[in-house]
Amino acid sequence: MNSRRNRRGFLKAMGLGAATLALPQLSFSGKAAPKDRKPNFVLILTDDQGYADVGCFGAVGFETPHLDRMAAEGIRFSDFYMGSSVCSPARAALMTGCYPQRVGLPAVLEAGSETGLSSDEETIPEILKTQGYVTAMFGKWHLGDLPPFLPTRHGFDEYFGLPYSNDMWPWHPTKKNFFPDLPLMEGEKIIGYNPDLTQLTTWYTEQSVKFIEKNKDRPFFLYLAHTMPHVPLAVSDKYKGKSTQGLYGDACMEIDWSVGQVLSTLKRLGLDEQTLVIFTSDNGPWLTYGNHAGSAKPLRDGKTTTFDGGQRVPCIMRWPGKIPKNRVCREITTAMDILPTLAILAEAKLPEKQIDGRDIWPLMSGQLGARSPHEAFYYYNAWQLEAVRWGKWKLVLPHQYYAVAEPGKDGMPGRQVWASITMALFDLENDIGEENDVSREHPEVVERMLDLVAKAREDLGDGVMQVNPEKKDFFQARKLYRIKGKNTRPPGRSS
């Protein structure tokens, strides 16, 4: 309790508002659900869709009317972060409510990897199933493709989709015939190889609609994880050539169509006011692919970097009668917050192990004076801590990163070079593009944020700095990371 009181006082003194530490008393307007049924949850995740790739976030060259309607009828989050700027760790953070370093999945898994999400971790569907939810996932998983790591081993009753990224197939643009045939799975069975990518968005959507129709009379959790707009891009004839942004814009428009299908199904079945719908992306745009990549403007850089363009993504939430209309939340929120928030809304117990997500229902529901429940947000690249955000401030630590020297075209990646940055302080409120280092003007802020850096290193580690030698077992985590079926939280970490 002392640490919580100190945290309140610290945030108040810095003018950041009090953290949300107690569970809110939920008060819903409108009619009660039939038989006091628990709410439904629909989580829609896209792949590599940038911050500016939704109409209400500034998309250029294509329209997203259904997502824009979601925002008009709900809330848009301007400062929503994923747990990583690449696929697997971002999805691990989403499913477990933890920084990916805490659950031992800090990097992208290759096809046929001998590791994946550990059965020791509690996931969103597993938590919801304790309260009688039926669960399904349709789309890209990318948390392990061996049987112990599949969605059906992590709480999903149904699964249909790809176990990893669609570029991990024989026609990879720079690694031809390096990857095996791309499997399409149903449950735990492979039902085909190298599927028609132009039909994926449609197939996922059709499966989602059928699932909602089949379970309209019981609480459900639907995880719709689109493969698009990850390269190689593909779109059905419904939207081919519809945008002025080329194939990328077409793919985003078809995703918007999919969102519309889900929303119309909920409306048709009378489930609108019983269902929270969340839309977001797993990380920023893969800029090296040029015209086959999106945009993170006005943010800096994109996928694979810890600049905000890599991890700050569009997020929209809609729940008629519970979430006020046409709101914008500018507080720091994260994908890790989804697990504890849904658990609390479903009256389920939170995981026994330590998690990093926090309840953000006060922000979602527009409670007066609600503030971010996060003291800080940490940006990791694999095991390396590269930045920290505290309120409006972002401290970037010295590191190297891939910068796009020449963007690619038409599905081929461009040329990347190693770039480096020294320690820098950015005021994201007045410098969203991380252009002007103000560390000399605010040394006291830098000093305080370095304390936060030390705190993160003590808790989550920092492989580059080689801190905490007494916890040297942490640096053997890569060994655990390779043990088939035995991936666990790295030893020496908080559990």
List the topology elements.
Blueprint: H1 2-13, E1 40-46, H2 65-72, E2 75-77, E3 80-81, H3 87-96, H4 124-129, E4 134-139, E5 158-161, E6 183-186, E7 189-193, H5 200-214, E8 220-225, H6 246-268, E9 275-281, H7 308-311, E10 315-318, E11 327-329, E12 333-334, H8 338-345, H9 361-364, E13 377-381, E14 384-390, E15 393-396, E16 399-406, E17 415-421, E18 424-427, H10 443-459, H11 477-480
Parallel strand pairs: 1-8, 1-9, 2-11, 3-12, 4-5, 4-8
Antiparallel strand pairs: 2-10, 5-6, 6-7, 9-10, 13-14, 14-15, 15-18, 16-17
Task: Explain what the structure shows.
This protein has 495 residues and is of the alpha/beta class. The protein folds into two domains: 37-364, Alkaline Phosphatase, subunit A (3-Layer(aba) Sandwich); 377-473, Arylsulfatase, C-terminal domain (2-Layer Sandwich). It is built from eleven helices and 18 strands. Strands 7-6-5-4-8-1-9-10-2-11 form a ten-stranded mixed sheet. A hairpin with a 2-residue loop joins β14 (384-390) and β15. It is globular. The chain starts with a helix and ends in a 15-residue tail after the last helix. Residues 1-33, 467-488 and 491-495 have low confidence and may be disordered.
